[in-house]
Specification:
Elements: E1 2-3, E2 12-19, H1 26-38, E3 39-48, H2 65-79, E4 84-90, E5 105-109, H3 113-125, E6 132-136, E7 139-140, H4 150-163
Parallel strand pairs: 2-3, 2-5, 3-4, 5-6
Antiparallel strand pairs: 1-7
Helix pairs in contact: 1-2
Length: 164
């Protein structure tokens, strides 16, 4: 089971994060829960689509955008029902993170810190305020160090289909 570090609740008015969010798994839950807990009013979630998916393993098995959007919205609302959840399809690594002036923080994992830094460079170029980069550590309580990923889940699906 993945857990997150202790965070300060309601620290920011609006928080952003991005990803593919295919087959929501515990790693996604940790990131989305952190974003929900950090936000007072709004969470903006960029959900990869189009060209952003072309290099993904088993890309043809990625759930439709509407399915992924709904799963993200339902999960965040289960954590904090009063939040406004804004899901945006993104076709580049930045999406709304570099155009929304009201954003205050970006939630990233250790693997995506560079993406958060890149967002801040683009925001600076556009004259927007820098986002606080909130890094969520994916710790596994059961000692399992295997990284859970949507690609692994899609691969398992393919293997099960071939066996069955």
């Amino acid at each position: 089971m993945a857990t997150m570090n202790v965070i300060q609740p309601n620290k920011y008015s609006a928080v952003v994060l991005g990803g593919t969010f295919d087959r929501l798994h515990p790693g996604h839950h940790v990131l989305l829960k952190a974003a929900a807990e950090l936000a007072r009013e709004r969470v903006v979630v960029g959900i990869s689509t189009g060209q952003m998916l072309s290099n993904k393993e088993y890309a043809h098995l990625i759930q439709p955008l509407d399915v992924r959007r709904q799963a993200v919205e339902v999960f965040i609302k289960s954590v904090k029902p009063e939040l406004k959840v804004q899901t945006e399809p993104i076709t580049d690594p930045y999406g709304p993170s570099i155009v929304d002036p009201e954003l205050e923080a970006i939630v990233v994992s250790k693997e995506t810190i560079k993406g958060g830094e890149s967002v801040n460079k683009k925001r600076a170029e556009r004259g927007l305020s820098q986002l606080q980069v909130e890094v969520v550590d994916l710790l596994f309580e059961d000692g399992n160090t295997e990284k859970i990923s949507s690609a692994i889940l899609r691969e398992r699906e393919v293997k099960q289909t071939k066996v069955g």
